[in-house]
Amino acid sequence: MPAHDPAGLNLPGQRAENHDVTSTFRALARRRFLALAAVVAMVAFSVSACLPPAPPSAPAPAWWSGSCDSGNYPGAHPLGASYRGVEVCGPRPGADGAPNRLVRFFPGAWGELEWQCVELSMRFMYLAYGVSPYGANGKDVVYNYNPASGGALVKYFNGTVGVAPAPGDVLSFGATASSSFGHTGVVESTYVDVSGNGEIHILSQNDTADGWRVIPVKNWSVDGPAVGLGVVPGWLHKP
């Protein structure tokens, strides 16, 4: 009588055959995984190669003594926010009732008051772009800029379709009911989609406790009043 395999019974030959099939599938899966990993690595490398390099840190202020000029201004300290090594400092003249201290970035320069908002924007532009300080309240920083001050900056009007503030740009905010001087800040990062909607993160001195502000952008317009600041007329940009 010929040999008969009951249903479900695996004979030695069948086990060997099943083992060979399983090994083949495992080998194929391993090769596919390795191939996929190689593609992912190549894409990641290509993307990283296309990204622009991070901007260099700005030099330290030569007129300072210690962090946030604490050697000349006792009690001065970083608030936390910074961009390209340029720190937002305190105590705040507004919320903290701190006194102003007049400084000049170099002999004969226009004087700035530590730690008003304008001092931050002027310090950043001087250290990062070589712009000499000039007379302005917060609302006038963009409008009062003149190419003669250096830096070769360009002015963009708020609401220009297709143009959003970029990291390193300097904004002005108009006057409000609580401040006739307006405000100014430095863009640290921007998250705006192709429709002109999103938000920007800025350094903001003599303002928040940590020196950060998040400002919404709607239809290519930076919306200062949405967060209690003035209307944004525009910003300065380094090409």
Structural features, described:
- With 239 residues, the chain is of the alpha+beta class.
- The chain has a single domain, classed as endopeptidase fold (from Nostoc punctiforme), CATH 3.90.1720.
- It is 23% helix and 23% strand.
- The chain is built from three helices and eleven strands.
- The strands form three sheets. A seven-stranded antiparallel β-sheet has the order 5-11-6-7-8-9-10. A two-stranded antiparallel sheet has the order 1-2.
Keywords:
single chain, globular, 239 residues, two-stranded antiparallel sheet, alpha+beta, 23% helix, 7-stranded antiparallel β-sheet, endopeptidase fold (from Nostoc punctiforme)
Per-chain topology:
Blueprint: H1 12-50, E1 77-83, E2 86-90, E3 101-103, E4 112-114, H2 117-129, H3 141-144, E5 154-157, E6 170-173, E7 183-192, E8 198-203, E9 212-218, E10 221-222, E11 234-237
Entry summary:
With 239 residues, the protein is α+β, with helices and mostly antiparallel strands.
CATH superfamily: endopeptidase domain like (from Nostoc punctiforme)
The N- to C-terminal Cα distance equals 93 Å
CATH topology: the name is: endopeptidase fold (from Nostoc punctiforme)
User: SS-based structural class?
Assistant: alpha+beta
Instruction: Give average pLDDT, whole number.
Output: 87
Question: Which second-level CATH architecture applies?
Answer: Alpha-Beta Complex
Bin the strand percentage: 15-25%
Tally of helical runs: 3
Poorly predicted runs: 1-11, 43-49
Please summarize the sheet with the most strands.
Answer: 7 strands, antiparallel
Strand order of the largest sheet: 5-11-6-7-8-9-10
- Gyration radius, in Å: 29 Å
Number-wise, the strands total: 11
